[in-house]
Design brief:
alpha/beta; TIM Barrel; 8-stranded parallel β-sheet; 17% strand
Length: 219
């Protein structure tokens, strides 16, 4: 069992994260607290610390952890989502950040009409992370809009190797696509590369370890 997450500790760490964002030139950048693999105490601590949104990666974990809970922050699904899992998470998810194909968008529109979505872009072309190619983004955004989805912006995941600077070209390209398409949300940057993401125009960062420490074991 992992140690119980204290709201005061998360609040202190959130202050540090917000200071890092400000130092990188960010104004009004939203922090999504990534609570995947953490217990409900982490969700509650994040909410008490002032986080308006949490991020979950796994459908079954999300359902088991959050079903029946009230007064939750906005729940963002930030992991790869199988089409057949949409029906499970639809009652709980506020924002789907990982729409990378029309079949997924269609199922979201069927299960959660008008849902808020972000189109995930594979800026570094790593198939393990999901995301559509940058050249396909405009078409998928248009398809999502045609389905009646609230298509607010784009999301991308930076490279996991090579250090934060390796993410800069991809982040810059995704931000440019947000502007060209007239979108408002640019979700990019995590604990290790948030400064680069913010400098390149991120409006939303997804922060786990910088708020909660190392993830607990999953088994």
């Amino acid at each position: 069992m992992h140690a119980v997450i204290a709201a005061a500790e998360v609040a202190e760490r959130l202050h540090v994260v917000n200071s890092r964002i400000a130092s990188a030139g960010g104004v009004g950048v939203r922090v999504v607290a990534v609570t995947k693999t953490w217990g409900l105490d982490a969700v509650r601590a994040a909410a008490a610390a002032g986080c308006e949104a949490i991020g979950e990666n796994y459908a079954q974990e999300l359902v088991a952890k959050l079903t029946g809970e009230s007064d939750l922050p906005s729940v963002h699904f930030i992991g790869r989502l199988q089409t057949n899992k949409v029906r499970l998470v639809a009652p709980l998810v506020s924002v789907y950040e990982t729409v990378d194909r029309i079949s997924l968008a269609t199922e979201i529109a069927r299960r959660a009409p008008g849902a808020r979505v972000l189109v995930q872009v594979s800026a570094d072309r790593d198939p393990a992370k999901g995301g559509c190619a940058l050249g396909d983004v405009a078409a998928l955004v248009e398809q999502c809009r045609a389905l009646g989805l609230d298509t607010a912006g784009l999301m991308t995941v930076g490279p996991t190797d090579g250090g934060p600077e390796t993410a800069r070209p991809g982040f810059r390209a995704v931000r440019a696509a947000v502007d060209v398409l007239g979108l408002t949300v640019c979700s990019m940057g995590m604990s290790d590369d948030l400064e680069v993401a913010v400098a390149e125009g991120s409006t939303q960062v997804r922060i786990g370890s910088a708020l909660f420490g190392l993830r607990p074991p999953t088994s």
